[in-house]
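User: Structure please.
Assistant: Input sequence and predicted structure:
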Amino acid sequence: MKRVQARNTLWATQKRFQGGFVPSDMPIIKRKWRSVDVVGKITETMRNVAAGKLPSTERFLASTRPFGGSVDTFFEVEKQPEGIQRTCHYVIGCERGLCGVVGASGPKKVTTVVRNLESSGECPNNDVIILGKKTMAKVRATLGDRVKYGYIGMRTKMPTFAMSLELADRFKGFEFDKVVYYYNYYVNSTTFSLKTLELYNQEISEQIAEAQFSMYDQEGDEAIILSNFYEFKQAVVLYTLQLENLASEMGSRLQSMDGASKTCKEKSKMYESVYQRLRKTKITNELTVLSTGAKLAKKK
């Protein structure tokens, strides 16, 4: 009963907001004021953390892009080969939340793509692998059992190439015809775009390599070279895309937390103004009652 009564009181206070508060609403206003201040401190702290990490992430990404670009064109084709029956969707996501559009775009895109592929019959078998705790929670809520693996707690610091090699090694036994990587491409601290990158399984990639690698001199067993280079490209792709998404995550968090912090400050000032006005009204009413009572007592 107490909980229902408190809820009704809060609802009544919200309902009176258009017409103004009354002095009896002061405890509720004070609770709201304190809550907004707490949220404001949290958002400001997260904004400062993102602002501190973003410059180092940008420098790291600038030195990594040439490394990733050296293998971009290998195993790639303009037109998708026929017979693709199983697709793996590899989502490079966010470890933490409160990063605005970057945290929401990946899960939304992969959910739409998987459902469209299955409903049209173009690709009946779809599996999902996710990097990032928050992204995994969102995608699992929409795609359920299609999520086969989720790696969490991995990017507390900058991604390393050793980490990417380990991820590529774990991916060896996974069956797929095509893998689609989803990631956010970093442009600047306010601009990021969701992109995809496609890579086919080793058998199809070796067929593509017959046309691509004929122009290069090779020493040693060609099958071993192709196998090693295919695994190397997987690791390079994962390494580069993690940094792209991490920079986008920091920029988006900086932007969204900056806006949230400003909004909390404005709300805090508003609640403070309302509280002080109600306090003055309450004191004025009490003084009026006391003076009226004193006058009546003198008349008697």
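The first helix runs from residue 2 to 15.
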